[in-house]
Design brief:
Helix content is 36%, strand content 27%. By secondary structure, it is α+β, with helices and mostly antiparallel strands. It folds into 2 domains: 148 residues; 79 residues. α3 runs parallel beside α5 and α4 runs parallel beside α6.
Length: 240
């Protein structure tokens, strides 16, 4: 992929059409994405990244992320893979910032394919994980980004094993870092999602397959089926 292809991807998005609280006098998001992608010096890369911290993607003052970040992340990952090393480094810094911030509370959810209403941060984490092969080539910066993405775990239900007063036991594949204690979660299916009062990891993944056994507490068995997904309710409620 060359720089012109990255520019085309940037220009294909109407950044201002996506919800945000951006100051109308702030420099255009597309202009600054282009500047970051084309950067070849430290000053150029830093300036492009800094200006994008207050854009249609994220709000530096509130420390929140807007839905358009979902569209910016693949572009930033292309810059990491194909851009000048200065641009790649700045793009990695911006990606880490996006994963360290809360989604804006008024429009925190996006329509991920097959998972309507997924939190924007979880969608970003999935996009990051999908480029693992690229990120590991960037050593510490790439590994730090992947570690941040791991906190936004996802569990795909493959089989309902049992159900009793203690909850619904499910077998499936866990992606990311399993929660160290019982946490609130969401069960997502094709038409929406439901809150799960508590998820307990009874047997975590022992190898790269991610195969795990979880217990979902406080949700009717009728809603749990193969092909549904469990994700964190609050991605920023990490302990342990």
């Amino acid at each position: 992929m060359d720089l012109e292809a990255i520019f085309e991807a940037i220009d294909a998005v109407d950044w201002e059409a996506h919800p945000h609280r951006r100051d109308p006098y702030t420099a255009d998001t597309a202009v600054n994405l282009r500047a970051l992608a084309a950067a070849t010096t430290l000053n150029q890369a830093s300036r492009g990244m800094t200006r994008l911290l207050d854009s249609a993607i994220t709000d530096d003052f509130e420390g929140t992320v807007y839905p358009a970040a979902e569209l910016a992340v693949p572009i930033l990952l292309d810059v990491v893979e194909h851009g000048h090393r200065r641009a790649a480094s700045a793009a990695l810094d911006l990606l880490q910032t996006l994963l360290n911030r809360f989604p804006d509370p008024d429009f925190s959810r996006v329509g991920a394919p097959g998972l309507p209403g997924l939190q924007a941060c979880c969608v970003i984490a999935d996009l990051v994980r999908a480029r693992r092969d690229v990120l590991v080539l960037h050593r510490d910066d790439g590994r730090r980004l992947l570690a941040l993405a791991a906190d936004h775990w996802r569990f795909e239900v493959r089989e309902v094993v049992d159900a009793d007063a203690d909850g619904v036991g499910v077998f499936g594949v866990l992606t990311g870092r399993p929660p160290a204690r019982p946490v609130r979660a969401e069960l997502h299916f094709e038409r929406g999602f439901l809150g799960v009062p508590a998820v307990e990891v009874e047997h975590g993944p022992e190898d790269d397959s991610g195969e795990s056994f979880l217990r979902l507490v406080g949700i009717p068995e009728a809603f749990v089926a193969p092909g549904t997904f469990v994700v964190p309710w609050e991605c920023y409620d990490f302990e342990g």
